[in-house]
Design goal:
alpha+beta; 20 strands; 20 helices; about 45% helix; 4 domains; 3-stranded antiparallel beta sheet; 12-stranded mixed beta sheet; Rossmann fold; Aminoglycoside 3'-phosphotransferase, Chain: A, domain 2
């Protein structure tokens, strides 16, 4: 395919969680086959292995050959029949492996060819797309209308030639001679997943605060995107319903080939016409690929140490954070993260930062505080709201110093980063830290303002008056938490939120000013932050219509009141004019005038007498 390109348009820093997963799957010196178009950043993460790229696009082959990889162009037909690899990666799916030129093999045919390319004791990593994933349920355009070049083969539930769920995919892997093993659910985009979660754990721990925060953060999406409904809300609801893996946009499945077939008679690779020279290192790479097989115990050992979850979040360059299961529960692991640089001078120091190196130790268990508060609001459960908010405020106060200030991770511990077990509160991700301490009331008001903004702009039902604005609801929540927050404190919290968000996003001065203006202007009639959801835009329109109706009624009442007052004034003025021209009014005025003059004269005489007496008193005191 000479005029075709399949390389993914969206690329993650350093290859994202997929690159981190491959770094654990592939031992040093292993022979790896990347079947299909993958992010070129994967080649850098697999520098310790001998990598061969199987493509159907000649332009893509030229790009990857410049990266120092051995490239085979021509689809599955271009693979040498006498060559096998220790790890075969088809993380772009099988549709992008087969060329449109030549004989069509179909999904099962491509799988069978890749299975034969897996060496005994080797591993296959296969991506399977979900035709009913969250990304399709929220898409504005249906899957069957895509006519782009990369969608020449559109997969859906109507196509019985390919698996539509992990169970079907595992059955086909088993029938092809492989032993299915672990599987990962990929969010939010199968082409560029930022979160990989073990599918079994995702279904088993439906109330996990860690998974709740991961899925919500991953599916928050691009603010410029347009969707039918909020994908983050849908993903979290699916998690709580035990369907977190069932509605995942895609799955990564691992399968192992039993080490029972002799492989000593394999011939070395013959580049010839099917192999593109990859540069000065191609000979060394080809020699490594043609070498002996990697010990299967090494590969299995790497697979036994696979993480429970891999997530890439936060500012660029922080790396991928992993969660591993241990004897004492889940533990953070951020060994591949970029360490935080030294702090800038005080004049230019950011108010907050993310230090991924701070992620160590056990992952706190429990439910996410934001989810518990939303649930209590929807049920109008004031008792639970009071218990949670007062416990949260008390926990924050216990972390403050003698001056009533919070520092480090606790200062940024909002409702979306705190988990609750009974009456115990804990910070979920301690890598988000404040550089400068925050006052206790400001930190609490910032967290409550964020929750109030999400509650009102999201259109959630709650037990308080519908006429409250975001700042007013924040004050109410502070009262429920047992703290007397003023609107001035809330305003300071909004400024702190703008500075913290700008620092974590890496915004420049202009971006910070624009962000601060946007936060100060948030109102209950606005749609929530994130993708433009038709469902939420409609709810925002309904709220705006209700507000316009209320304001119109208020304006009408005010106009009627002003009209009635104006009519009363006109009647009074007419009455006065009528009375002032009557004979009785004139006679009364003539009778009153002498008395008025006499009263005015008496007041003048009294003032003169008082002044004379005051002047004589100092003279007498001097005598």
């Amino acid at each position: 395919m000479l005029a075709w390109s399949d390389l993914p348009e969206r690329r993650l820093a350093e290859g994202g969680p997929l690159a981190a997963l491959l770094a654990r799957l592939v031992p040093a010196g292993a022979r790896v086959l990347l079947a299909g178009p993958h992010d070129p950043a994967l080649l850098a993460r697999l520098a310790h292995a001998a990598v061969t790229c199987l493509l159907r696009s000649h332009p893509d082959g030229v790009v990857l050959a410049d990266r120092g990889a051995r490239v085979v162009v021509g689809g599955p037909a271009g693979l040498p029949d006498d060559e096998q690899w220790d790890v075969v990666v088809a993380a772009a799916g099988l549709d992008a492996v087969e060329s449109v030129e030549g004989h069509r093999l179909g999904w099962d045919g491509v799988l069978a060819r890749l299975v034969t390319a897996v060496a005994p004791g080797g591993t296959l990593l296969l991506r399977v797309d979900n035709p009913l994933g969250v990304h399709r349920l929220v898409a504005v355009s249906p899957w069957y209308v895509d006519r782009s070049d990369r969608a020449w083969s559109v997969g859906g539930v109507l196509d019985a030639g390919r698996p539509a769920n992990p169970a079907q995919a595992r059955a086909r892997l088993a029938s092809a001679g492989l032993r299915p093993e672990a599987g990962f659910a990929a969010y939010p985009d199968p082409d560029a997943p930022t979160v990989l979660v073990a599918a079994d754990e995702l279904d088993r721990r439906a109330t996990s605060g860690l998974f709740d925060a991961m899925l919500h953060g991953a599916c928050a999406g691009d603010p410029g995107a347009t969707v039918l409904q909020d994908p983050a809300r849908l993903a979290v609801d699916a998690l709580h319903a035990g369907l977190g893996s069932a509605l995942a946009p895609g799955w990564l499945l691992l399968a192992h080939r039993p080490a029972g077939v002799a492989t000593d008679d394999r011939a070395p690779a013959q580049p010839g016409a099917v192999t593109a020279d990859a540069g000065p290192d191609s000979a060394a790479v080809s020699g490594a690929v043609a070498g002996g097989p990697v010990d299967s115990g090494t590969v299995a050992g790497g697979r036994a140490d696979l993480p429970v979850a891999l997530v890439q979040t936060g500012p660029p360059g922080v790396g991928v954070v992993e969660v591993h299961a241990g004897a004492d529960g889940w533990r953070w692991w951020a060994g591949g993260a970029t360490p935080r640089s030294e702090a800038a001078p005080f004049a230019s120091r950011e108010v907050a930062h993310r230090d991924v190196a701070a992620l160590h130790g056990p992952v706190p268990e429990g439910r996410l505080l934001r989810t518990l508060l939303l649930d209590a609001c929807l049920r109008r459960d004031l008792h639970t709201l009071r218990h949670l908010l007062r416990g949260y405020a008390t926990w924050l106060a216990a972390q403050a110093d003698a001056d009533g200030r919070l520092a480090g991770a606790t200062a940024l511990a909002g409702t979306d980063n705190v988990v609750v077990v009974g009456d115990e509160f804990a910070v979920l991700d301690p890598s988000w830290q404040a550089t400068a301490p925050l006052e206790l009331d400001v930190a609490l008001a910032r967290s409550l303002w964020r929750f109030a903004a999400a509650l009102l702009t999201g259109g959630y039902a709650h037990p308080w008056a519908s006429t409250l604005d975001v700042a007013g609801l924040t004050v109410v929540l502070g009262g429920v938490a047992g703290r007397d927050l003023s609107r001035a404190t809330v305003a300071a919290a909004v400024e702190a939120e703008a500075a913290i968000t700008a620092a974590l996003r890496g915004l420049d001065a202009e971006g910070r000013v624009r962000l601060a203006d946007e936060l100060r202007a948030v109102s209950p009639t606005d749609p929530p932050a994130g993708p433009r959801s038709y469902q939420q835009l409609r709810e925002a329109w309904l709220r705006q219509r209700e507000e316009m109706t209320r304001l119109s009624a208020l304006l009408k009442w005010t106009e009627e009141l002003l009209t009635s007052r104006e009519r009363a004034l006109r009647r009074a003025d007419a009455t006065i004019n009528l009375l002032s021209g009557s004979l009785s009014y004139r006679v009364g005025r003539l009778a009153i005038t002498p008395a008025r003059l006499a009263k005015r004269g008496a007041r003048a005489a009294k003032r003169r007498a008082t002044a004379a007496l005051n002047q004589r008193r100092p003279d007498q005191e001097q005598q």
